[in-house]
Structures are given as C-alpha cells and as structure tokens.
Amino acid sequence: MFPIRDHNPSGVTPFITYGLIAANILIFIGYYDLFSDVRALNVFFWDWALIPARMSAGEGYGGLLTSMFLHGGILHLAGNMLFLFIFGDNVEDELGHLGYLGFYLASGIGAGLAQYVTAPFSQVPMVGASGAIAGVMGAYLLLFPKARVDILVILIIIFKIITIPAWIMLALWLGMQFLGGFGTPADAGGVAYWAHAGGFVIGMLLVLPLWLKRGGPAFWEKTHGHPPHPEARYAFVRSNVPIAGRSRRSQRRKGPWGR
C-alpha cells in the first residue's frame, strides 16, 4: 500500500519541502559512488550516520542531525521523498516556512533519540529521513485527518488506486511500525521501526499546541478535517482524438484470422 498523492495542494509554494527534497537527492548523489566500495561506504556511515554505540561512548552526537540526510539506496531515497512530497506541503503551509523547518529537524532528532533508547549499544548505522518525515505525517494526521489520499494497492498481480481518508492510511502505517518494533530486535538492522513510531508521535506532540490554538475539535469542524484549500479533482479524461476503424474491404481481405 503506497500513497501516491493527496487531493489538497498547498496554498503557498512549499519552498522548505522542495529544498529538503533537493538536499537529500544532492547529498545522495554526492556519495553514490561509495556504494561500489562497501568498506568506504561503511567508513562514511561511521562518520556521518547515527550509531547508538558511539553516542553511548560520548561521541557522534552530530549523527542525530546528519543521518536524516543520508539514505541506504535509491529506493530508500525515492520512498522517503515521495512521502515528504505528499504530506509536507500542507504542514509547511500551516507552520510557516521557518517554523516547518524547525519542526522537521526536531522531529528527525527526536526520532533518532527514540531509536537510540531502544538499542543504546547497537553499532548498526541508522540513516534516512523517514524519522523526520514520520513527524510530518503525525502532524498531518492531527491537522487534516479527513484529507483524501490516493493509495496504490498491490495484491500479487492486482494493481488498483483507491482514495481513502488520510487517518486510515496514517493509522495503518503507524500500527505497522509498532508491530515491526515489537517483533524485531532493535539492534537487528533493517527498518528503524522505533524511529518511525517515535518521530510520528513527536510530530503530533509538537503540532498539538497549534492545533489547540486553532480550536482543537472546533478546528476540525471548521475545516471538516481537510486543509483549508480547494480540493483538487483527479480523474481520467477521455481523449477527443477520433479512433480510426478498419474498412470493410480490409476486413474481408484479412479473413477469419484477422485481429
């Protein structure tokens, strides 16, 4: 289940969201050659990723910040940037550009700390923007629970796009993080489930004062749980180009095997 877009474009140009996407892509391009040299890549991640064991030894605290701009592969980067592109613009609109940047970085640092607490002596490097983006998703859930989101559902050979309220998709995603966190040793590597869950909860807590200032439940009643912008309508449009058919003569010439 993958989100592909929401139906509520931002009311302003989300400069910070676009800048964060660009920064993540450019940084990834900058060290992409290291993926052909595992030893060099490990040294790079040792210096710049979040490694809990280093923090427990009193060093490597900068990894809390730098790790959220590193990724372990193209698909890792692409997935994170897709989520940021979908959910970041409306949250940036509500928080303002500078407020959103501070919120994003705070969510990422908080997510890193959540992962650290679960495995403080792990030597597995943690990289990725997903903790910070999880914070953005938590804010989106609190502010716009009924916003419509298109998701791509893949069931073996069946591919289908359906539209659901944001709260369903985000609640399912958060539930999967908790299930993964409880079912996987924190120092086993792979997905940093507790960073995701921690970032999500931290994002909700950070935006809670704004939600209360806007009226809390009254804000939902006023906006109907949607971003305060006209909803985009997505639909497949039939082409006006006429379709040329075969002539009767050509059909007779082809006989029963013609297709």
Automatic annotation (TrEMBL):
InterPro entries: Peptidase_S54_rhomboid_dom, Rhomboid-like_sf, Rhomboid_protease_S54. One of its GO terms (cellular component) is membrane. It comes from the Bacteria. It is found in: Membrane. It is a multi-pass membrane protein. GO terms for biological process: proteolysis. Pfam families: Rhomboid. Keywords: Hydrolase, Membrane, Protease, Transmembrane, Transmembrane helix. One of its GO terms (molecular function) is serine-type endopeptidase activity. Residues 63-210 form the Peptidase S54 rhomboid domain. The chain crosses the membrane at residues 12-32, 64-86, 98-118, 124-144, 151-173, 193-212. PANTHER family: PRESENILIN-ASSOCIATED RHOMBOID-LIKE PROTEIN, MITOCHONDRIAL, RHOMBOID PROTEASE. Belongs to the peptidase S54 family. This is Membrane associated serine protease, rhomboid family. It comes from Roseivivax halotolerans. The lineage of its organism: Bacteria, Pseudomonadati, Pseudomonadota, Alphaproteobacteria, Rhodobacterales.
